Amino acid sequence: MIIKNYDQLAITPQRKQALQIISAGIERVLPPNIIKQAITYDPAQKVLTVNGDQYDFATGRLFVIGGGKAAGLMAQALESIISPDDITAGVVTCHNGGAETKKIEVVKASHPLPGEEGIEGVQKMMTIKKEHKVTDKDLVLCLISGGGSALMPYPAAGVDLADKQAITKSLLRSGAPIEEVNIVRKHLSQVKGGQLGQHFAPARVVSLILSDVVGNDLSTIASGPTTPDPTTFTDAIQVLEKYDLLDQAPTSVVTHLKKGELETPAKLPNCHNYIIGDNKLALEAMKVKAEELGLKPTIVTAKEKGSPDEIVASRVKEIKTGKYKGANILLMGGEPTPTLPDNPGEGGRNQYYTAAALFALSQHQKGWLVASVATDGSDFMPEIAGGIVDNNSLTDKNITTQDIQQYLEKFDSYSLLERLDNSLVITGKTGTNVGDLMVWMV
Q1: What is the mean pLDDT of the segment spanning 254-279?
Q2: Phi and psi, residue 204, nearest 5°
């Protein structure tokens, strides 16, 4: 069971089912399971097959680069398929250690804000080309997953790391969707927006991608380091203007964006990108598990996004009007984007989502349950994956709906769920990341 405090949380039959279903979803998208199903390797011919497409390096060499929350375990899984002896060199950055590799170096970096360790890791990747004199006969395998935007930092010339951290923090708090956040990130970087793939030309670059982005936009996942970028410096400036951040942005950030030099590449003929896992896979596994448990599940969406309050209100309305009649468990995936107030309390979007559901359903008399969990195991707070609440959560707690509303206004969902007991889901760092998973049982 991937949920470490399962015994503490599973105090009702409904909770047991919900937690088992969530666990099945996360386990389906763990890197070893994903990698082994996505690729095969013929060591005799030195041919790598990805989703049916073949790439040989019989007259060249294989290098491995990449970054993201899952990159370490992806590298470990890769070495179980491709012998380390067949890999000339490799470097990936990730959020957690623990990956056991022989040839691919795993650099631990910081998230959600970029740090010096990540920069050092990316520098090591970049030097591979010159150090090994990479040519068009070589194959560069890039392992990418969610979180790569922060875990693969390499600020543009003239942009200080502290300034990039500051603008990243402001964007994450603004409520801007990840697509817009990453437009800015791409144009403050030397590797994002296809620039990493461009750096390794003329070598062929094959990217194995674990998506945490709603809709699987390749240019958004980890800010698209090996994907052509359709956005511009002007687009980045407009994002900052939209959220009233341009005037308060660090001087180096504004100067670089307005200068508009070295636009990100619009074409990358040497790059080939494959999404090998996303929350759809997790949701399908959750559906299978729910059916095994005798439930009647329906997958509502893999694109849950927007304000958590609005999402929850809409879902409650749909349930009350009978939209999901015949189903007794609803499955969703995505990435809501709350807007944080000044001086917010503690808790991430999954904890907030469950607190919002508790507020919306607190007067609902029939049995109900809502859970929301980050598949990477970190709901902004590294030790908490998300939350779970039900119709018994407020029993004997002396907590009113007004109290819940105040917690929500302060964005202090962690304090609320901690006060409720048996409501905070703990998985530890899972080594994967396909966004968030939600379960509704009504």
Answers
A1: 94
A2: -75, 135
* List of residues 6+ apart from 218 with CB closer than 8 A: 209, 224, 227, 273, 275
334 lies in the same domain as 289 = yes
Q: Which residue has the tokens 């795993």?
A: 106
What's the pLDDT tens digit per position in 223-240? 999 999 999 999 999 999
* pLDDT above 80 (res 96): no
Domain boundary, last residue among 277, 296, 311: 277
One domain for residues 38 and 170:
yes
- The H or E element spanning position 54 is strand 53-56
Q: How far apart, in whole angstroms, are the C-alpha atoms of residue 58 and residue 38? A: 21
Q: Which helix (H) or strand (E) holds 182?
A: helix 178-186
189 and 40 within one domain: yes
The answer to whether residue 1 is domain-embedded is no
Given a contact cutoff of 8 angstroms between Cβ atoms, the answer to whether 222 and 186 are in contact is: no
Examine the pLDDT at 44 and tell me if it is beyond 90: yes
232: number of Cβ within 10 Å: 17
Q: Which tokens is 135 given?
A: 């040519």
pLDDT in tens, 1-25: 899 999 999 999 999 999 999 999 9
CA 69 to chain centroid, in Å, comes to 7
- Contact between 31 and 76 under an 8 Å Cβ cutoff? The reply is yes
Which of 264, 242, 266, 241 is closest to 254 using CA atoms?
241
Task: Give the total residue count for the chain.
Answer: 442
